[in-house]
Specification:
The complex is a heterodimer.
Chain A (H helix, E strand, L loop, with lengths): L1 H13 L2 H5 L3 H7 L3 H22 L11 H23 L1 H7 L3 H4 L3 H11 L4 H31 L1 E2 L4 H4 L8 E2 L8 H4 L1 H20 L1
Antiparallel strand pairs in A: 1-2
Helix pairs in contact in A: 1-9, 4-5, 4-8, 4-9, 5-6, 5-8, 8-9, 9-12
Chain B lengths: L1 H52 L13 E4 L11 E8 L2 E14 L2 E10 L4 E8 L50 H20 L1 H5 L2
Antiparallel strand pairs in B: 1-2, 2-3, 3-4, 4-5
The chains are: A mainly alpha, B alpha+beta.
C-alpha cells in the first residue's frame, strides 16, 4: 500500500504533470478559460490516463522495444476513440459536458509520457494508479488555472456549470463584480502562460521553504 | 548476419501488424455497437433544436413527419438525400428547416439547422454537432454564447454577399479572436443555405 501512497504523492504534488513535468501544455493552456472547462478536461484526461496505463502494462512484454512508441500511440488513440463512442452512446449528459474534450486528449503527450516511463516498466495495478493520480494532479492544476483566468478574465467563477448539472445550477455561478468589463489578456493564450508561471513559482516557493 | 536482422525485422513488423489489426477490430466493434445509440442521441438533440429555429407557436403541423427528401447539393453540403422539415400553418408552408453541413470548420464538419421563412428571412440557426476547440471555438453553441442569434432575421435581400463575413474580412458578423475559422465556416454555410432556399423556393414551399 505504501507504493500507492508514493505514487499518489508523486502524481498530485512532487511530479505533478502540470507544474513539474510540464507535459501536454497545448490542450491544457488552450482549454482552461474557466474552472468548469479546466476541471472537465482534467477529469476526462485522468480517466484516459488510468485506462491506458492499466491496459498497456499487462501487454508490455509482447511489445518489441523498437516499435513501442507507435504501438503505445495506437493503443491510446484506439482507447480514446472507444471511450468517446461509449460515452456518446450510453451516458449522454456526460457527453454533453466532456464529449468535446475527449478527442483532444490523444494529442496530450502526458498520456504517452506516463505509459512510456511508468506503465512500460511496472505491473498493472501500480500503473493504473500512476495514470489516475497523474491525471488527478493535472486536473487540479487545470481547475486552479481555469479559476484564475476566469476571475481575472470574466469576473466570474463556475460559469458554464449549468451545462453539466442542468439549468437549475446556473445560480451557482458567482459574479464578483457587477458590470465587470472583462480582461481579454487573461482569456487569451498569453494569460494562460502567465497564470501557469505564477502557479509554478508558487509551488517552487512552497517547496523552497 | 543478414538472416538474423531479417528475422528481427520480420518479427517487429508482424508485431506492428498484429497490434494494428487488434486495434482496428476493437474500433470497428465499438463503432457498430454504439452506432444506433449515437444516432438516437443526435436525433433527440436535433428535435430539441427544431423548436428553437422555428418557434412552435408559428406552426400547427407535426414538423418531424412533414418532410421532403432532397438530393445532394453543394449549397447545403449533404452527401446523401436528407429531409427538409416544413412548418405549416393552415396547410400553408410558412417556414422550412434545412440541415446544413459546413465542411470547413477548424476540425471537421459543423452541422447546423437553419430555419427560413417564406420571405427568405432567417428565423434561427442552431449548431447540432461540431468538433471545434472547446473553450475557444464552441461559442457557436447557443449554450455557450449568443453569437448564433446574430443570424436571426437576416436575409439575402438586406445583406449583400460581402456582408456575409466576419468583421475582420469586411463583413457584418462578430467573431472570437483565435477562432475566426469557426465563425467563417458557419457564416458561409448559412449564407449558402439561404441561396439554396432561394433557388428551390417553389419546391420547398409548395403546399
Amino acid at each position: 500500500m505504501s507504493d500507492i501512497k508514493k505514487i499518489a504523492i508523486d502524481g498530485l504534488w512532487k511530479q505533478n504533470p502540470g507544474l513539474v513535468q510540464l507535459l501536454g501544455l497545448c490542450p491544457t493552456l488552450a482549454v482552461t478559460t474557466s474552472v468548469v472547462n479546466g476541471l472537465s478536461l482534467g477529469i476526462a484526461t485522468a480517466l484516459v490516463m488510468a485506462l491506458s496505463n492499466g491496459s498497456i502494462s499487462p501487454i508490455r512484454k509482447f511489445v518489441p522495444t523498437e516499435i513501442r512508441v507507435p504501438v503505445f500511440i495506437l493503443i491510446i488513440a484506439a482507447l480514446v476513440t472507444i471511450i468517446d463512442f461509449s460515452i456518446h452512446a450510453f451516458i449522454e449528459p456526460l457527453y454533453k459536458a466532456l464529449g468535446i474534450f475527449i478527442p483532444l486528449i490523444v494529442t496530450n503527450c502526458i498520456v504517452l509520457a506516463r505509459v512510456e516511463s511508468f506503465a512500460a516498466k511496472n505491473d498493472t495495478a501500480p500503473s493504473f494508479f500512476d495514470g489516475l493520480y497523474m491525471g488527478l494532479g493535472l486536473a487540479m492544476v487545470l481547475a486552479v488555472l481555469g479559476a484564475l483566468r476566469e476571475i481575472f478574465g470574466k469576473g466570474t467563477l463556475l460559469s458554464g456549470i449549468d451545462l453539466i448539472f442542468g439549468s437549475s445550477a446556473s445560480n451557482l455561478v458567482i459574479h464578483f463584480f457587477s458590470d465587470y468589463p472583462g480582461f481579454l489578456l487573461a482569456i487569451l493564450p498569453p494569460g494562460a502562460f502567465i497564470s501557469l508561471a505564477c502557479l509554478i513559482a508558487l509551488k517552487n516557493h512552497i517547496e523552497a521553504r | 548476419m543478414f538472416k538474423d536482422s531479417f528475422k528481427k525485422v520480420s518479427i517487429t513488423a508482424s508485431a506492428m501488424i498484429i497490434f494494428s489489426l487488434v486495434a482496428s477490430a476493437a474500433l470497428s466493434i465499438s463503432y457498430f455497437l454504439t452506432k444506433t445509440p449515437i444516432e438516437e442521441s443526435d436525433a433527440r438533440a436535433k428535435r430539441m433544436f427544431l423548436n428553437q429555429v422555428v418557434p412552435s407557436n408559428l406552426y400547427d403541423n407535426n414538423l418531424v413527419k412533414d418532410t421532403i427528401s432532397v438530393e445532394p447539393n453543394p449549397l447545403i453540403g449533404n452527401k446523401k438525400n436528407i429531409d427538409i422539415y416544413r412548418a405549416k400553418k393552415n396547410n400553408q408552408v410558412i417556414a422550412v428547416i434545412i440541415e446544413t453541413i459546413a465542411p470547413d470548420g477548424y476540425s471537421g464538419e459543423i452541422k447546423t439547422l437553419v430555419g427560413v421563412d417564406q420571405k427568405d428571412k432567417i428565423l434561427g440557426v442552431r449548431v447540432i454537432t461540431h468538433k471545434e476547440t472547446p473553450g475557444l471555438g464552441d461559442y457557436i453553441e447557443v449554450d455557450k454564447s449568443h453569437w448564433i442569434k446574430n443570424f436571426n432575421l437576416k436575409s439575402l435581400d438586406e445583406m449583400g454577399e460581402k456582408e456575409w463575413a466576419v468583421k475582420k474580412d469586411g463583413g457584418d458578423f462578430d467573431y472570437v479572436s483565435g477562432a475566426t475559422i469557426t465563425s467563417r465556416a458557419v457564416i458561409k454555410s448559412t449564407y449558402k443555405s439561404l441561396l439554396y432556399v432561394k433557388e428551390n423556393k417553389k419546391r420547398l414551399f409548395a403546399s
